[in-house]
């Protein structure tokens, strides 16, 4: 007999939100601990942690009234929260685009100097960090693609422009590696190690 697969933390959060949206009521924790297992298959022992995580992420509201704490969430709040999260991600993307542009300018300046210029090495490291940040932002945006199509489409277009910029950046680095290799007769592996260039660096799809 196969072992029953447990419910993931994210699925529990989604089910708990649906419970709030469907009931449209105010609950105490002990009420949720009784209701959630029956309605949504969330074990009572995990209800507190699930609700608290939603409160921490501003998806569920809570308020202490007298000696009791009440929890509630309505679909309108979820929409507002998603829009705010998307707005935050777009702002981070814009900052990343500016940083990438600055790093490109720095690298262009560094190319005019010696191949072992410390500034160039630092620029390449920063470029790598910015690419990793961009990738994380892409993953974050993916989570909200079904929640706000118009906003997501706008962000996706900006991401495409950013990816084009990163790929141009990658072209510059490949060109720089080729130039150094031919100019100074240095092995490619030595260049990568000296300048901190990942040997698996490639274009962003």
Automatic annotation (TrEMBL):
The keyword Transport does not apply. It is found in: Nucleus. Keywords: Coiled coil, DNA recombination, Meiosis, Nucleus. InterPro entries: LZ3wCH, Mnd1, Mnd1_HTH. Residues 79-172 form a coiled coil. Required for proper homologous chromosome pairing and efficient cross-over and intragenic recombination during meiosis. This is Meiotic nuclear division protein 1 homolog. It comes from Rhodnius prolixus (Triatomid bug).
